[in-house]
Design a protein that fits this description.
hydrolase, Glycosyltransferase, 31% helix, nine-stranded antiparallel sheet, 18 helices, 2 domains, single chain, 777 residues, Beta-galactosidase, Chain A, domain 5
Length: 777
């Protein structure tokens, strides 16, 4: 049996019928519910997560020592991992003494559905016990989008064939949750119990981490129908509530379970317990129906401003709404932390935040949920003192942000692909620019924005080496491609650093009070601009393409013709010492430079570079396909772009990389929106008016999307041969359509789409790595 679940294809839901244990790890991630602070994996009610740790709380982490065979100066001493919080999802049912288990007895029907408009996970099962008792179980689960620390479950069980005795054991329990790091080493993030107390309908408990100085409190309450008996017991693990009742056909036993969470410092236990209990009391006062109504109202508001509508491709329609749902629910209450790379849907990457946030998620939030983008950037700004300290430790000026972190400390021990991946700092600067371009938020620009740009610019200035001919070089860096490390003049890094330096100078001149506060001199501004204009852009004159880094195009090409379909991903079958010495790319690197800095290249260079790097990029990373989709569409290879879009759309729904069990790929989810809006919509942001250059693939009959731009909500409606623009909220907005300026108000403005010039031959990909759903994974 395949581990990939056969999902239903629906406009506003993702569901599965039937049950196979092999599907559980993927489904738990797909069906995860979150609000940015609190996340529950999409488990069956009667079971904790198949991988350990059903519940996660943003920013609640454990610290552990990092082990090195040969320690050296500058290596991080401690790692971090999100700690599993007390699990309140488990509701175990026994019928006449036999526990509900879909692996025993007979499953006559079973469905789970993630409802994208309601923000709920529903489940319905008809089960016959080994002894022949038949029951129907229904449940609806939500993680509140209105109350920060609240989760709730409505659980119903009904006898279908006579009288039976039912026993429900409802848990709020902390257990050991092993965290697996990328080196295969286990770090146990077990919680230390500090207090628990039961009452008539549940209780409350608090736990602390052993090393990070954090604590969590959780409270639980149960409302049950008449005729049931309930008792609760507190122990070191948490709260165990037992409910018993006699079942008869036509009369369901209904239990409403409310769970509240709060986190803070480990000396704040009393306050945290009070906060957790207050969450539960708020939910009791509102009632189940009102909780559902408010959940739907929040999502109605989101979909009114962010929905994407597609005609002609039902799978893609479902996928983009699934992706946007996960992006949205990952940020609602995330502040003061950003969403981790997997959101709160799984333990992948130990709950760390990477460059994915700044390069892929924040730019989408900037046009769909600007306040969440600002929150993520302010988190980066609050991390400046640690980043400046890290820069000094490394011998640099300015700020060196951590490659992977939860609280701002560097937690990556593999320095060639972390410390040396300094492009992260320019990615943060780029996110600042994209946010300001999208929103026009000059208050942010004058405060947090300028300081982020200045301190990252100071890093580049301290790193640069100027040769005898006046050319500026960045030596020994790692770009986005993780199959290359420690190269000189990585083109992407150099171009992003160039933009960073120029933008810092521009913002410093625009915001003179901030410049004075940061002690920026005229001489420093001049050095930044001189360095930016002198930056090296490696180019292979013989092959007439840009080099990913100096000397890259002179390497021996990876033997793609010798590869079999099961030889990918390459890093699982070949040592990095071989990958590093060959011409092969794990993910879009130079292609990302072509997308982020298009004005640096001529049209002919972009076409040649794209074709050259298509042939060596194997897409062993989920970050690649969205970027390649945008570039392919822009260069006129619309059908190829459509295949890349199909791939990124099904990244988790079809578990293309076989790792969705660790959580959904949040950057790929955001990347799908980018692939559609920037690829087929041609959306580009900069200092001037928002620009569009629409083009649709043949199988797509219509694309409608919304974007918040400069305080307006704009609707873009693209059909074959024409595009329409309308401002749904706010004053008129000037946009450019295929180079033509349009003044757009609340009346739709329609313009024809010029016929695209015929592109050159479609580029080819490495053997066994064509884009789309047919590529072996």
């Amino acid at each position: 049996m395949s581990s990939r679940a056969p999902l239903t294809v629906e406009d506003w839901a993702v569901g599965v019928s039937g049950h196979e244990p092999a599907w559980a790890p993927q489904l738990e991630s797909l069906f995860a519910l979150s609000n940015g602070f609190l996340g529950w994996r999409g488990t069956l009610d009667e079971k904790p997560s198949s991988l350990g740790g059903t519940c996660r709380l943003n920013g609640f982490f454990e610290r552990f020592p990092l082990a090195y065979a040969e320690p050296a100066y500058g290596y991080p001493k401690f790692g971090q991992a999100l700690a599993g919080a007390p699990d309140g999802a488990v509701i175990a049912l026994s019928i006449d003494g036999e526990r509900l288990d879909l692996g025993a007895g007979t499953v006559h029907a079973h469905e789970q559905r993630l409802e994208l408009r309601d923000g709920t996970l529903t489940r319905e099962t008809v089960w016959e016990s080994p002894a022949g008792a038949r029951v129907r179980v229904r449940s609806t689960r939500l993680v509140s989008l209105c109350e920060r620390g609240l989760a709730a479950v409505r659980f119903e069980v009904e006898a279908l064939d006579g009288r039976h005795d039912a026993t429900i054991v409802s848990l709020l329990e902390a257990a050991d949750t092993p965290q697996q790091n990328e080196d295969g080493l286990e770090s146990i993030a077990a919680l230390v119990p500090s207090w628990s107390e039961a009452d008539d309908a549940g209780g409350a408990a608090s736990h602390a981490t052993a090393h990070s100085g954090l604590a969590v409190a959780a409270a639980v309450h149960h409302d049950v129908g008449g005729g049931a008996e309930m008792r609760a017991r507190a122990d070191a693990a948490g709260i165990r509530t037992t409910i018993t009742a006699a079942l008869t056909p036509g009369r369901a036993l209904t239990v409403t379970k409310l769970i509240g969470y709060a986190t803070g410092a480990d000396h704040q236990t009393t306050e945290l317990v009070a906060t957790a209990r207050a969450q539960v009391e708020t939910a009791r006062r509102l009632g189940w129906a009102e909780l559902l109504s408010r959940q739907r109202a929040v999502l109605d508001g989101f979909w009114r401003t962010a929905d994407v509508e597609i005609d002609g491709d039902p799978r893609l329609q479902q996928a983009i709404r699934f992706a946007l749902f996960h992006v949205f629910q990952s940020v609602v209450f995330a502040d003061p932390f950003p969403p981790p790379a997997k959101g709160l849907t799984g333990s992948g990457y130990q709950g760390h935040t990477f460059w994915d946030l700044d390069s892929f998620v924040v730019p989408v939030l900037a046009v769909l949920r600007p306040e969440a983008a600002a929150s993520a950037l302010r988190w980066r700004h609050r991390g400046l003192p640690l980043a400046q300290q890290r820069a000094r430790e490394l011998g640099f000026r300015g700020a060196a942000f951590p490659w992977r972190t939860i609280d701002g400390h560097e937690s990556s021990g593999y320095w060639p692909a972390s410390t040396a991946a300094l492009h992260l700092n320019a990615d943060i600067a780029d996110a600042v620019l994209r946010y300001v371009w999208a929103t026009g938020d000059e208050e942010f620009a004058a405060r947090e924005g300028v300081e982020l740009l200045v301190q990252t610019a100071r890093l580049w200035q301290s790193l640069v080496r100027t040769d005898d001919e006046g050319v500026a070089h960045l030596d020994g860096v790692t770009g986005p491609d993780e199959y290359s490390a420690l190269g000189d003049d990585n083109l992407y890094t150099n171009l992003m650093a160039q933009q960073n330096l120029l933008a810092a100078a521009q913002f410093a001149r625009r915001h003179r009070e901030a410049a004075a506060r940061l002690a920026i001199t005229a001489d420093e501004l001049a050095r930044w601009e001189a360095t930016a204009h002198a930056i090296a852009l490696p180019f292979d004159e013989r092959k007439r393409v840009h080099a990913q880094s100096a000397g890259f195009t002179g390497k021996k090409r990876w033997p793609f013709d010798e590869m079999t379909a099961d030889a990918y991903p390459l890093m699982e079958h070949h040592p990095y010492v071989q990958l590093y010495r060959h011409e092969v790319a794990k993910q879009a690197d130079l292609a990302l430079a072509l997308v982020r800095r298009p004005g640096v290249f001529t049209a002919a260079q972009r076409e040649r570079d794209f074709a050259y790097y298509e042939a060596i990029t194997v897409r062993d990373s989920s970050l690649s396909a969205a970027t390649q989709a945008v570039l392919a569409a822009e260069l006129g290879h619309v059908d190829l772009a459509a295949e890349y879009v199909r791939e990124v759309a099904q990244m988790d729904l079809a578990d293309l990389h076989g790792d969705t069990q660790g959580g959904i790929h949040l950057a790929a989810a955001a990347g799908l929106w980018t692939a559609l809006a920037a690829g087929f919509g041609g959306l580009r942001l900069g200092e001037g008016a928002p620009a569009f250059a629409p083009r649709l693939p043949e199988r797509m009959h219509r694309l409608r999307f919304r974007a918040r731009l400069c305080g307006r909500l704009l609707l873009v409606d693209i059909r074959p041969g024409q595009a329409s623009y309308r401002v749904l909220e706010g004053p008129p907005l000037t946009v450019t359509h295929c180079g033509q300026a349009l003044s757009v108000g609340q009346q739709s403005v329609t313009a024809p789409i010029p016929r695209l010039p015929r592109p050159g031959p479609p580029p080819t990909q490495p053997r066994h790595r064509p884009p789309g759903l047919d590529a072996p994974r």
